[in-house]
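seq as requested:
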Amino acid sequence: MGEGKGLGGRVRAVPHNAIFNGGEAMAVITISRQYGSGGDELAARVSERLGYRYLNKALMAEVAAEMNLSRGKFVDFSEDTYQMHGFLERLFGASQTISHIEAINLDQPGAVMEVVERLDETECITLVQRVIQTAYEWDNVVILGRGGQAILQDKPDVLHVRVQAPLDARVQRLSQRTHSNLGGAQDKAIKSDRASAAYLKRFYGIDWDDPMLYDLIINTGKLNLDTAVDMVTRAVQSLPVREKVR
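struct tokens:
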């Protein structure tokens, strides 16, 4: 295993089989996924294969801290949060106040999760956008959800991936993974899909299912995850090169 420069100049381990876009090139991958399609696992495996950072909650907190955000806590306002707090019913309303959602304490090591009582959703989405833009500048990052395909839509060196599968295949996968009945798994999948679509429509004015938003659409109902990982890692090598600033 070799070593490479991580975010903020830190050194991080890079797998011996890591693939890089032209050696000096920078690249970012966004992954949008239907619930139960395996998109989360794909994102993690692609980041491991390429030696990229995976923009999860902990890394979101790290990026926010290096941005010197003035607030003590950074709220990771994602599609999952949108669904969890029933914002679908308020889709066409004014900016709402968010209560009892997860936040990341930047003052504690390990990205400690806490509860925030009252925050404006517009403020939260703006913070998420700023963090994703900063992560893009750092390069070599896999961004799962959070509107990455909209925020970085016009960046030529970003690969936008959509992961999907037929509903019945996703329901079977969810039922096995969560040990739940098929009816409950189907209800969860449908609600999650609706929440993701509503989140992107509300905050970015885009259709989540629009194929033109994506460079690569993968059906995990037909293709296994090993094949999907290979497809993404090959595709990212064809992106235009953004040279590193010396």
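The chain has eight helices and 14 strands.
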